[in-house]
């Protein structure tokens, strides 16, 4: 049997040992999905607190079921390590580490680079390595492959290398890791075969592409598509504000067309680990071939402007009520970057808080999922959502449309509301208090 056949057999009969590097929003749900079908999963997580929690069967990711994780840990299907000593035991190694941007909006691949350097000296023949982190086209072949080949092993013969971008949508109950189509590209046809077999074990539909670069580009394109369309509706929002039109009514009317259009909605800006960051990976890489990605630059510019637009409109609402911003008490409802999750990374709500604080307003926030945050030195604690607190605020700004808030109650108890998400759409009483984005 060749190394490839042996590995494919181990994968098919689920005796392969799966390593997952980085047990975060992507890595932990993935590890659980593999554990559930009988694979033994070894996680490598540099955050020792997280690794300890896993080994005690304690969950810290909202999309993961507490009981399911505990059962898998108790039955030895999932364990966590803080170093790479067990790499030789693994048949498949899946990398799910962060891919942030530097302050100058250029790719920061130091996580991918450092884990690849940890893996290379510990590799053995017959392993599949796949990268799931979102990145620019070329990362797997140009950054990872040369490092992995310092092991002396030959790709496509001794080991296999692929890119399969993660598409998890935190908080989405309809589309999970299992029923979301997964794109896979290998650095060669042998790697593609092995990776297709691996992903096919737990994912309903796996979509092959001709190379790892195509898989990498497909993912950044998906996020660019969202960033550009969100920027388009955000721009229309600012135009509607000037024209005195209700953008939500305009968009809802447009989206009744049954073809040639798809719904995107405006908001206070974009947040999270994907939409504000990933397009800039492509923008940076495009420069290497002397190409300017105009849409990406423009979308980034418009989306980053939204928190300032929210601030300006909030000040207008306060002025109309005779309250100067320096005397205003403002309640920001929601700092998670999107509804029903507890991730506040890159959240526009936090930018809005800072901007309002610069106008000398007293700003408090409430988020049922984010009890406290520390973002670049701004440390805040979620305030309770009591009738007294809501009534004491001159303005409530809804920045995240969490489902577990009683919005009719919020409107009833507040003096005035600025709703940046049209979350109060179904609210019937007290509409006169509500201003929409
Ligand atoms: N969160 C999402 O919704 C989402 C969706 C699709 C794709 N992605 C992409 O997936 C990748 C991971 O994102 P995430 O949201 O899961 O990030 P995360 O920050 O939630 O998790 C990453 C984990 O990797 C760990 N880590 C960092 N360096 C490590 C190292 N050297 N060794 C071991 N562990 C290490 C961190 O401690 C952390 O627990 C990123 O490229 C992201 O763009 C994220």
Give a concise summary.
The protein has 437 residues and is α/β, with parallel strands linked by helices. It is 39% helix and 15% strand.
CATH class of the largest domain: Alpha Beta
The appropriate CATH architecture of the largest domain is 3-Layer(aba) Sandwich
Beta strand count: 15
- Portion of residues in beta strands equals 5-15%
Instruction: List SSEs in N-to-C order.
Output: HEHEHHEEHEHEEHEHHHHEHEEEHEHEE
Radius of gyration: 24 Å
Characterization of the model:
The chain has two domains: 3-210, Rossmann fold; 230-436, NAD(P)-binding Rossmann-like Domain (Rossmann fold), CATH 3.40.50. An eight-stranded mixed beta sheet has the order 3-2-1-4-5-6-7-8, with helices on both faces. It is α/β, with parallel strands linked by helices and 437 residues long. Helices cover 39% and strands 15% of the residues. The structure holds nicotinamide-adenine-dinucleotide.
């Amino acid at each position: 049997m060749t190394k490839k056949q042996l590995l494919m057999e181990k994968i098919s009969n689920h005796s392969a040992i799966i390593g997952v590097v980085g047990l975060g929003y992507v890595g932990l749900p993935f590890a659980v999905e593999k554990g559930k079908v009988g694979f033994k999963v070894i996680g490598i997580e540099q955050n020792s607190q997280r690794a300890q929690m896993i080994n005690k069967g304690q969950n810290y990711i909202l999309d993961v079921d507490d009981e399911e994780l505990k059962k898998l840990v108790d039955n030895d299907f999932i364990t966590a390590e803080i170093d790479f000593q067990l790499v030789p035991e693994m048949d498949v190694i899946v990398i799910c580490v962060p891919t942030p941007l530097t302050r100058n909006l250029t790719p920061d691949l130091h996580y991918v680079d450092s884990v690849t350097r940890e893996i290379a000296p510990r590799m053995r023949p017959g392993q599949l390595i796949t990268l799931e982190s979102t990145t620019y086209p070329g990362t797997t072949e140009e950054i990872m492959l040369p490092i992995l080949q310092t092991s002396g092993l030959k790709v496509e013969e001794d080991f296999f290398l692929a890119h399969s971008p993660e598409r998890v949508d935190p908080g989405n109950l309809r589309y999970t890791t299992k029923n979301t189509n997964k794109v896979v590209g290998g650095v060669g046809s042998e790697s593609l075969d092995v990776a297709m077999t691996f992903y096919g074990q737990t994912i309903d539909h796996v979509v092959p592409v001709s190379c790892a670069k195509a898989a990498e580009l497909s993912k950044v394109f998906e996020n660019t598509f969202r960033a550009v369309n969100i920027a388009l509706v955000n721009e229309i929002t600012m135009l509607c504000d000037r024209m005195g039109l209700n953008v939500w009514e305009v968009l809802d009317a447009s989206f009744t067309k049954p073809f040639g259009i798809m719904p995107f909605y405006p908001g206070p800006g974009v947040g999270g680990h994907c939409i504000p960051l990933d397009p800039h990976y492509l923008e940076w890489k495009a420069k290497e071939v002397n190409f300017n990605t105009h849409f990406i630059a423009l979308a980034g510019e418009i989306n980053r402007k939204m928190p300032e637009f929210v601030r300006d409109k909030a000040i207008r609402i306060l002025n109309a009520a005779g309250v100067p911003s320096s005397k205003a008490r403002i309640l920001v409802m929601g700092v998670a970057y999107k509804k029903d999750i507890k991730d506040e990374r890159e959240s526009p709500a936090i930018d809005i808080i800072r901007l309002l604080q610069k106008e000398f307003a007293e700003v408090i926030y409430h988020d049922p999922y984010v009890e406290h945050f520390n973002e670049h030195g701004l440390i805040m604690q979620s305030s309770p959502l009591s009738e007294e607190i809501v009534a004491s605020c001159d303005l409530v700004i809804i920045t995240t449309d969490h489902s577990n808030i009683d919005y009719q109650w919020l409107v009833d108890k507040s003096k005035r509301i600025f709703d940046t998400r049209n979350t109060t759409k179904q609210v019937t009483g007290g509409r006169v208090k509500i201003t929409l984005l």
